[in-house]
């Protein structure tokens, strides 16, 4: 499997939330490592509930081995490895780290910084496939469209769009499919996610039976190529949690 990257136009759309929960869901199918490739504002470890002593940056400056910076987490039924980051400006060598991880794990998932500066583009270029997280709002769709143009330009394969914080906006699914490309996942807006951030625990482990956790699982199945039909639902279904 390839190295997959989770990116976005606008910040705060849910890349880290998706990265953590999706990597957990994907770990049902093989060995997975989630890499905090957002070296500007790294916080993937926070959602996994730990404070790292050693990080990717220690590996990049030669202060630690890759093995020392990888945290093996056993969260309920999930077994997942995480390579955390701390805020830094050094990004050289990141590509080599990803290639090494690619030779060890079935799947490497990278949480990438928002936007289109060097700290976003460099990790994006190191991925084999990129997924775009966006919210069902015009401005977010526009920003994602701009990033999609850049993805096409740098020649990395586009895996699809992930619409996060969905509250039944079927119109947004149609627009994203028309302007950006296929929608590979719909993740609802969920209070359980806010709580999960407060607790430092992924929602897929905290509430595996919740609709939102099911949606992460379906997204994981689509990403590994299973034929799971996407069913955009309207506001009523969202509100009634049907
Ligand atoms: N599906 C959701 N339902 C409800 N709240 C959500 C959802 N996804 C994300 N959030 C909220 O949005 C906040 C930002 O999410 P997250 O940190 O994952 O975004 P991000 O794109 O990684 O941000 P940044 O660009 O700063 O890295 C979270 O703290 C969480 O409370
Ligand atoms: Mg983030």
Provide structural commentary.
- Helix 8 links the parallel strand 7 and strand 8.
- The radius of gyration is 17 Å and the shape is globular.
- By secondary structure, the chain is of the alpha/beta class.
- Helix 1 packs across helix 11.
- An 8-stranded mixed beta sheet has the order 3-4-2-5-1-6-7-8, sandwiched between helices.
- Helix content is 43%, strand content 21%.
- The protein is built from 12 helices and 8 strands.
- The longest helix has 17 residues.
- It has one domain: 3-Layer(aba) Sandwich (Rossmann fold).
- The structure holds adenosine-5'-triphosphate (ATP) and magnesium ion.
- The site of magnesium ion (MG) has 5 residues, from helix 1.
């Amino acid at each position: 499997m390839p190295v997959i990257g989770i990116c976005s136009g606008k910040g705060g759309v849910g890349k880290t939330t998706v990265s953590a929960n999706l990597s957990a869901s994907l770990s049902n199918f093989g060995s997975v490592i989630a890499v905090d490739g957002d070296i500007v504002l790294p916080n993937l470890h926070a959602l996994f509930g730990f404070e790292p002593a050693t990080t990717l940056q220690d590996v990049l400056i030669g202060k630690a081995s890759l093995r020392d910076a990888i945290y093996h987490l056993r969260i309920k039924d999930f077994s997942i490895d995480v390579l955390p980051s701390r805020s830094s400006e050094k990004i050289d060598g990141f590509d080599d780290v990803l290639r090494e991880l690619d030779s060890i794990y079935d799947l490497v998932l990278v949480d990438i910084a928002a936007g289109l500066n060097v700290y976003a583009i460099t990790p994006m270029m190191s991925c084999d496939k990129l997924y775009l997280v966006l919210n069902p709002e015009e401005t977010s769709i526009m920003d994602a469209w701009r990033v999609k143009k850049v993805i096409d330009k740098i020649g990395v394969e586009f895996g699809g769009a992930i619409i996060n914080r969905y509250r039944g906006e079927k119109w947004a699914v149609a627009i994203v499919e028309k302007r950006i490309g296929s929608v590979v996942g719909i993740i609802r807006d969920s209070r359980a996610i806010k709580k999960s951030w407060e607790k430092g625990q992924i929602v897929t482990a905290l509430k595996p039976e919740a609709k939102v956790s099911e949606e992460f699982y379906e997204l994981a199945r689509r990403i590994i190529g299973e034929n799971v039909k996407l069913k955009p639902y309207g506001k009523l279904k969202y509100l009634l949690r049907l």
